Give the backbone structure.
Amino acid sequence: MAIDDDDRPKKKIAHEIGQDLRLLSVEELAERVNLMQDEIKRLEADMAQKRASRSAADSIFKR
């Protein structure tokens, strides 16, 4: 039984810092830029949450 390419699970886009970009298409580069922008937003949101928690704890314990 042959498997169509459409039936195969799509490989998740991954990016390694410092990776050689010469073999990637413009579309692949754009996908990676979007991926990295989403990750930056996620990291910034987590930092903001941790800063708020720290600030609340500091105000309670009068650091």
